[in-house]
Amino acid sequence: MHNSQCIIHNFLFWLLPLLFSCFPLFPQELLLEKVELEELPPADDYYIDDSPLHQILRLFDEEDYARQKRFLEQKQKKIIKETGGIKVPSEKFAQDIIHDYIARYMTRFGKQNLYKILDEGGYYRLYIRRELKKRKMPQALEYLPLVESEYKPTAKSRSGARGLWQFMENSMSPFLKKNEWVDERLDPWKATQAALTKLMDNYKVFRDWPLAIGAYNCGAGAMKRALAKAPEKSFWYLAEHKMIPEETINYVPKLLAITEITEHSGEYKVELPELNEKTPFDDFDYITTNSQISLEWLAHEIRLDYDSLKALNSELIQEKTPPYSYRLRLPMNMGKSALNFIQ
User: Fold this and answer.
1) How far is 300 from 319, CA to CA, in rounded Å?
2) Which residue among 24, 254, 271, 316 is least crowded, i.e. fewest CB within 10 A of its CB?
3) What pTM does this model have?
4) Sign of CA dihedral 264, 267, 268, 273
């Protein structure tokens, strides 16, 4: 068993008896029946949603979730007309599914998880936010990597999608490239440019942001086929009548729920991390290499933390530069120092 999985499972062995004592309303037999942990890949190949700890803690959100739903209903359930630059219809299906996700993120665990992910993703959020403004795209898209990867640049799904924006190999061309040396899906800056271009291309085809975002998840071809069969050409009609995959049905409402909460956090009683707009999120030096150079060796020579250099060049899948001309990313003001060692 993978080392990280051993740690998690040992922790759960200690945690379960405590949970039984703390939650007497949950019979032990029922809990064990519900928690059938699925086979997991190595720890660095899955998201938090796949982890056995998350599967167990998720069970105890049910009462909290019901309380949050009642809270929303007592407030006479606000009609969300627009959030993050994306219009929302007032029809019951669209409003109900978005409010359902709002209630989930308003639970104690949901709030903690949302805060943690947004805080850790702040570095990339600032870059995405600026690029969205440049392209005049909806600000809601700042939170799409939260839905996709929790802002983890090297995230890998079971289906093989990789990176901050979860590109599949068959959907990365012509936006990104992959060979034996680099996988540009893992570079958060390049992947962001690619994802925003793809989303804008989708919008030019569908002329509707929910459809464009949904197509990012299920593919433009699948969305076109579904629309061809639908009497009403809208994402919400396709979702309500289950004409698109279940994952896509939930994909757009989840994004809009997160956006609504972040735009009105006080109203929903959700604490969010503050972003320092002055954080340097894309101030780098670049040097051109023409041969294989170990990142570990270079980091040692220029007295830079190896993990920092690796994170700046996460697309290098062999942790060394390729044997051809390559643009290596370095922290600001370290380019000249690095050139002294590679020339």
Assistant:
1) 14
2) 24
3) 0.79
4) positive
